[in-house]
Request: fold
Amino acid sequence: MGKEEIIGVLGGMGPDATVDLFQKIIDKTAVEKDQDHHRILIYNNPKIPDRTEAILNGGESPLQELIKTAEVLEKAGASFLVIPCNTAHYYFEELQQEVEIEILNMLEEVAKKIKRDLNIKKVGVMGTRGVLESEIYDKELKKLNFEVVKPAEEQKDKIMDLIYSVKAGQKTLEMQQELSAVAESMVKKGAEAVILGCTELPLIFDMDSFAYPVFSSQEVLAESALRRINK
Reply:
């Protein structure tokens, strides 16, 4: 039997999203007892500078803190890394160069899952302004010949407000309804599926009541981590 692999979670962006990913990995693991679960190392580092502020407004770069956090996990024995933050993937290539272990690319995994699951052309993306304006999802989706639908400008501001409200510990029915309204407007613009491209968004989105396909980047990342460790 080969050496048992360990999942490394580069977390803290934000802590709620990190907990949510951990819970999803647990829930998606078929077990009968504690010992059937996978080893997981989590470094919850909420001191990583704001990604959107750095990308759009010249704020402090999170790259060095991301590298330090990844190196801690690598030295602690992680076999590969997952990052439950879509916007942090703006720095994916630079970060991957600094560690020897593989980092799963959440955005790439989401695009591939949509391609596997659906025969569609247009995909809507909801996320931070850092994600939307840097077009990091566009890059992965266009590789697979998807057209990208984005929220209107005022809706981008609304999404940002909702994300930072979740980070501040707020989760209300009104927030859920506001996010659903944005998703519905994207469907009206032609989106045949919608990506929740920020790991805070699944925490306030009612997946069951939405009539169109919705892909939670967090859910896809959990599934991808388990596929990677079980291969």
About this structure: The chain has a mean pLDDT of 96. The first strand starts at residue 6 and ends at 11. The beta strands are 6-11, 39-44, 80-82, 102-103, 122-126, 147-149, 193-196, 214-216. The first helix runs from residue 15 to 27.
